[in-house]
């Protein structure tokens, strides 16, 4: 064999295998998406998202306390209101008594070290279930939509959110939010994470089930990106950098690794997030249950591909599992357990 053909000497040991990664997964890379509902005592299983629940504010301490002890460092909140009256402009989104604002305040008080992000969208709060506002002729009304999203973002920032993350995909909303935060003196206290390249994906099904945010009619193809739109994704990322986003996000993650790589190239000076969405999570769990692969091994493989593509932050429903798995992995390394084949 030719001398240049021999590669295996470089990865014979668990430690030398770990050196093959340019960057390593850490607990701090995980942000945990959680669903907050308006029954303060709720703890309701979500059938389509195994192991995930809708939580009321009174349950947050017992739910998150053990995870914070294990090293949970950030969460992103999604409001799931059932009792509110939804309308055309999503009025309940920034209700001071709504579940998100109450949860932010509660979490800030309970867990001073926890980083709290809020998803910002109108679809959970509008009567039509869409993410923006409509003109009388039925077209999306971009400027008032962005203004309304900015108003909601500011309300979350004022409640104490460390980060606001608009997922609505209206044009111009990053600039509108940044400006709104600046005008109110909050721009230097609140991170703006943009769902920059959010694709119209079939992988959001379990989330819509969990959050009750399926549109009442039509779909979101006029504002979320078409799956084949590589160029449009690059333009959206560039636009959001120019409009003042502090973090760029790609969503979903696994089918869009090339877009994550493009984002890493376009935004080399920004943190780069990706969202391993509900359908990706459900698919990995279902495959493991069907005996296709081992759950943990597959979960690692999925998120390591995202880190390899360039992301520095992963929103994932596997976050609680990874807090355990990454502790186990450290232990394995420190014991130098070697599994030669
Ligand atoms: N803004 C959040 C979504 O649209 C869906 C996320 C998921 O499917 O996990
Ligand atoms: Zn939405
Ligand atoms: Zn959404």
UniProtKB/TrEMBL annotation:
Gene3D superfamilies for the chain: Aldolase class I
InterPro entries assigned: ALAD, ALAD_AS, Aldolase_TIM
Q: Which Pfam families is this protein grouped with?
A: ALAD
Q: Which residues bind 5-aminolevulinate 1?
A: 208, 220
Which superkingdom is the protein from?
Answer: Eukaryota
Q: Please give the PROSITE patterns that the UniProt record associates with this protein.
A: D_ALA_DEHYDRATASE
Q: GO annotations under biological process?
A: protoporphyrinogen IX biosynthetic process
NCBIfam families found in the cross-reference section: PRK09283.1
> Quick one: which pathway?
Porphyrin-containing compound metabolism; protoporphyrin-IX biosynthesis; coproporphyrinogen-III from 5-aminolevulinate: step 1/4
Q: Which cofactor does it need?
A: Zn(2+)
Q: Which GO terms describe its cellular component?
A: cytosol
What's the catalysed reaction?
A: 2 5-aminolevulinate = porphobilinogen + 2 H2O + H(+)
Q: Which SUPFAM superfamilies match?
A: Aldolase
What the record says about family reads:
Belongs to the ALAD family.
Q: Does the keyword Lyase apply?
A: yes
Q: Where is the active site?
A: 198 (schiff-base intermediate with substrate), 251 (schiff-base intermediate with substrate)
Give UniProt keywords alphabetically.
Heme biosynthesis, Lyase, Metal-binding, Porphyrin biosynthesis, Zinc
Q: State where Zn(2+) binds.
A: 121, 123, 131
The record's note on quaternary structure and interaction partners says: Homooctamer.
Single GO term (MF)? zinc ion binding
Query: What SMART domains does UniProt report for this protein, alphabetically?
Result: ALAD (SM01004)
Q: What species is this protein from? A: Wolfiporia cocos (strain MD-104)
Q: What is its EC number?
A: 4.2.1.24
The protein depicted here goes by the name Delta-aminolevulinic acid dehydratase
Q: Where does 5-aminolevulinate 2 bind?
A: 278, 317
Presence of the UniProt keyword Lyase in the record? yes
* Signal peptide as annotated in the record: none
